[in-house]
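Data availability (excerpt). The following record was deposited with the supplementary files.
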Amino acid sequence: MKNLTNTSMLPPAVDPPSSDRLAWAEPYLNGYAACPLCEGKSWQNLYEIGILKVHCCRGCSLMFLNPCLMPEEQKLIFSSPEMLKKVSLFFAHYHNDRSWSTPKTTEIYRSVLAQMEGLLPGKGTLLDVGCGKGAFLVLAKEMGWQTVGLEPNFNAAETLRKQHDIPALDCDFFDPRVAEQMYDVISLWDLIEHTPNPKIWMERCRALLKPGGLLVIATPNHASLLDGLAHWACRLSFGRVPAGLEKLYTIDHTLYLTGATLADLFQRTDFRVLKTIKVNTDLSRYHMSAAFRVFAEILLAASWAFHLQNRVVMIGSK
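Predicted structure:
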C-alpha cells in the first residue's frame, strides 16, 4: 500500500536519512490493505528507514512493515548466505551449525523445555516448525521428547534425519502431509515475525495440536530497552542517528511484536496464555565488531534490571 492513512494528528514519523542499502529489495515488496492482527485500516507511520516503512496499528498496537516481503521472497533470502548478508551483516554466521547450539542458546532451549514439562502430564510428541538443522530438537530428544521437524529446505531436513535420526518433513507447513491433531507441542522459534498473516499460522497450529496441546512461540520483543534507546536516539537527533533502528527493524521481519501484541495474537486465535518468558539475544550467534559486542552486552545486562529484555517466549494451550 503506497497511500498511507492520514496521520496529521499524530507526532511526525522519524525519517532517517535515505539509504540505498536495501534498494535491491524494493521490487519484491507488497502492501497490506489492513492490519494483519485486528484487520483495522488505520495506522500511524512510526519510522521510515530507507525503503522500510514501519507502522503501528491504532486498533491493536501491532507494529508491522508495510509494504513487506512475501513468503516466497523470504524463502529466497533465508536459503542464501549472500542474500542474508545483504539484509544485514549480523547474519554472516546464520548458516553455521554452531551458531544455533551455543551454550547460552542451549540453556534457553533447556529452560523452555523444562517449562513445557511442567505444563503437560508427560513428555509427548514435539513438532518444531522451521527447525533448520534441529538444534532445539536434538536437545529435546536428549531430554526424552518424541521429536519431529518441519523444514522446507531439503538439505537441512536431510541433515536432521541422517545425523540425528529425527524425522523431518521437508514440505510446507500447510501441506496436507502434516497430519492434524498429532502433536502435544508445536514450537515456532524466530518464525512468526516473518509471516505476513500470523493468524493463519496460529489457526494451522490449532489444527495440528492435540486437545490441550501447547504452542510455543519465540520472537524478538520490541518493547525492550534496546528498542527504547534506539527510538529516542533517532527522535532526539531528528533522524540523524538511525543506526539502532536499522539494526532492530529489518526487511526480513514483517511483524515487530511485543509481549502484549503476541498475547493478543494468542487470544484472538483461541489460545490461552500460560507462560511468558523474557530472555536476551545470544550475541555469540551474530557477526559484529568486538567494540559493538561489548557495548551491546552492557545494554543487554542493563535490560535485565528493568525487565526489558529483547526477546519473548510465550507458551499457550489449545
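Summary of structural features: The radius of gyration is 19 Å.
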